[in-house]
Amino acid sequence: MSQPETPSNLSTKPQTEDLRIGVFVCHCGLNIAGTVDIKQVVEYAKTIPDVVFVKENRYTCADPGQEEIRNAIKEQKLNRVVIAACSPRMHEATFRRTVSEAGLNPFLYEMANIREFASWCHPSTPQEATERAKDAVRMAVAKARLLMPLQTIEVPVTNKALIIGGGIAGMNAALDLAEMGFKVYMLENTQSIGGHMAALDKTFPTLDCSICIEGPKMVDCGRHPNIQIFAYSDLVKVEGYIGNFKVKIRKNPRYVIPQRCTGCGECKDVCPIEYPNEWDMNLGTRKAISVPFDQAVPLIYAINKDYCIECFKCVDVCGERQAIDFEQKAEEVDIEVGAIIVSTGFDVYLPYDMPLLGYGKYPNVITSMEFERLILAAGPTGGKVLRQSDGQKPHSVAFIQCVGSRDKNKYPYCSNYCCMYTLKHVVQLKEKYKEDVEVYVFYMDMRTPGKGYEEFYDRARERGVNFIRGRVSRIEEDPKTNNLTLYSEDANLGHPIEVNVEMVVLATASIPKKGSDEIARILNLSRGADGFFMESHPKLKPLDAPTDGVFFAGACQGLKDIPASVSQGSGAAARAATVISKPKWKIEPIISIVDETKCRNKTAKCGVCVDKCPYGAIKAEPNKAATIITASCHGCGTCVAECPQHAITQMHFTDAQIMAQIRAALERDPEDKILAILCNWCSYAGADLAGTSRFEYPPSVRAIRVMCSGRVDREFILEAFRLGAGMVLVGACHLPYDCHYISGNYKMKARTDALKGMLTKLGMSPQRFRVEYVSAAEGIHYAEVIKEIDADMKALGKEKIKEENAKLKPTLENMLKRWKKT
Amino acid sequence: MPFKTQKLDTAEALTLEWILQNKHYKLTLDKKQCVGCQICSLACPKEAIKIQKQPKVQGEKVKKATVDVDLAKCIFCGICDITCPYGAVKVTLNDSRNINIVEKESFPELVRNIKIDTRNCPKDCEVCVEACPLDQLTISRVTFDGKPVENLAALSPSQRRHVVVSVNIPKEKCPTCKACEYKCPAGVIKMGKIFEGKIAIDQSKCPAGCHDCVDVCPITDTLTFVDGKVQVNEATCVYCGACKVVCPIDEALTVKRTRVLHTPVHSGTWNKALERLTSPMDAVKELKSIGNKKAQEMVKKRAVTEEVIR
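Predict the joint structure of the above. Result:
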């Protein structure tokens, strides 16, 4: 498929024009000026080569301050701007706008953080804080010299959406988007949309009929002019990127031509063959030509060739309509969409591997989903709850909660809605059979945190249901009567109990949908330890997948009940609309690009970058240089650090820029300095918080910001030690899931573990190189870490450090040969 | 409990089951009655039935082939039950015979044209009982007032005259070998065969002293081993092919079925079964007679593609 060309403005060649750098030092009232001696910083800045203009402002971010910058750019013909003020996480975007208003490319400016990283964290050592501020300005100027103008990349957007999974969440997302006027494709791998909800009898806590409320929505989806349903179809391939996904769908053969099938069902009547119906939890049967249930949408019959004996009775009865085609083949369809909503739902665990409960062995032990089909009027027993062993009505039924859920050996998580559906079942059973049935519920905790849920629990208790707090250890069957004995404890009474019942219903765990790994592979999604899809951020981006343009709805992201799934469906629709409602999608140009002349893949099988990219944004075809799909690149820079040929460059965070910062940081007394390379999202934010919270720590640290710890090249560390750095710290997001770029922290860890081993072998004290995981909330932790490192540094002593560095230097210089030229 | 499948293989029977909430499908193969012919495996639309030749032990009689049904493929349609000439397979739904395919006219029943007129039966004759090679045929005698006769010799001559004899042949178990018809001295039984066909033995190709076919043939005297050669008495052959299954030499023995007597039906499943039980050409013949052009073409097309594959 075609990829957007790497924009021509993205060039790795340095600028040739004369540098005219302007430095603006902010007082921030007394926030900075109260500690840092601004005068000293200004005077120092004037002495830095290429700096032609220095100005101090009381508040740079205020309108007058911004105006001064704009004027200076114009009047002094500045082509680089350095602003020494607060954290770039605070005002980077503000000043980008300011410089671009003055006609300068917004990427030709750099911030020096002298508030969070100087004045606020070193209030009792103002001179050291001032020195740190000076160094920060020098580092920023060093980077600014090498900055290149970049253009925001724009890609066109296909204003259509694909919904994968036609359950209640997917249907709501589809209907909302369709109502907004977007074309929506719904992909469903079973023969009908509707999902689990279509198989339910009633819904809690209102006990309204499930299909009665869902059916109209299904019909709406089927009839909506903006919705096209691909039922009984599979997702084969997705290529492309946000706004421009190319999707391949395989329509499995139904052996019935959809356009001709009227859904009359005459074929079903003449078909002689029956097979277990998966929609009935295999309790009942369906014909070899049939629809899974009467309300199916689309109402198109399908032949199951595993069971069909090809008597062609259906062909005869279909007659003139000629809807049946035994020669039908699977068909692949290509569609283009701008956004994808994944709403693949869940599966129900069948506890065959818990032999003590006897499921699969004792005919009267069933799961809740099977109970649902028994109590459903359209189910195989016509709504009668009957024992399988003798077809009789049970006079006592025990419900067991948390079968598989909240179980360290099976599924440690809570399945969210089992307590509520069991309450629904006991209420239904009590209302149906009244005093004729004795009901027991064995539970661990009864969880009813929803609107009207606790009241529903009351309703069950009022019906005279026996709630027993305890976990059932085993069930035994009387082979003569098929009745069951439950062995449990009553935790409230504190002693073991035995209960005899005629039927047992297991509230089993819900588990990730079968095939989730396949979907994850195709869409490059990640799954949590529980197997459900990982959202971008658990609090603030619960509907966003880490892949841009892909969103989640419903239980595929984590188990949730119907109202929550419906809300998420609408939420995901809104999120998708933020993409597909735009004609163009803007992408930050801090992406990576490959230097084709250097890429090893042209001559050998390399592909290291392809494996390391957390987003699958790199392609390496044999004998060709690797290419980066611009719109899929998130700009973590992991590939840059991993490339054995140094053929990849991350724009705005180039090797040369970061090396220049390192050299600037370690220009004076490197043995006394801690060089910290911090990832933007967690550890830099944590360090910011240390400043904001006024946690004081030693001023010996010099910090460099990268987008992700995955960007930390081995060469950065080597260069730091070559220059004589006292200590080096790499700050990253916590393992395993905190990384903003999915797994950059893991890649960094593998790299630095090896590097640390090597440096230690060469005679370096191991404490001199540290990797620390600091979250954005852990300001205090960052301060502690710096204190520890500083103490270690002091304990080692300058002489020892110098001695070690002298020993390291020849090896490091050899390893950094390629930088000698510059 | 969910849908459960079960397979049980004992010395007497092979049983397969599907147990659903209120439907219980069961296939039972009676191993005593099964002769190891190929009929069911040829007729099965799902190719679920495999005939397994038993290894021959030197110096012993050859064992008849055994039948195995694949639980993963079987759909309990009942075609094996219907087509077994010996009635060895039973397919039931909730304990009664599953003849859904017959009721829906997707498959015919085999026709066993057996006519018995016992008016001429000699009262004490038991020739037919002895003639039945499968011991299926029984005779019952009742007095004029309907009481079963225990001892015929004890009755007076006039009582004897009024004894009513009836010959009972369990239809679904009778392979229509006609042995009883040939042996009957009074022409009481008239029988039409289920299968029409041809059996031939090329004695020149038979391995010396081999009489495997004779050993497995369930119908006495159809195949005989005389003077070191196997002789065929086609009159009683039912063309089941049990002999062909065990024959060690391909060209030595041929069994061909050319026609199957069945109730009228219009069904693709039957056309295919017929094609495999007889031959494509024979199937076309039948289809021609009922004027089904489309099906004829399909059979021919299949025959051509199979030829090409071969």
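Confidence is low (pLDDT under 50) at residues 1-9 of chain A.
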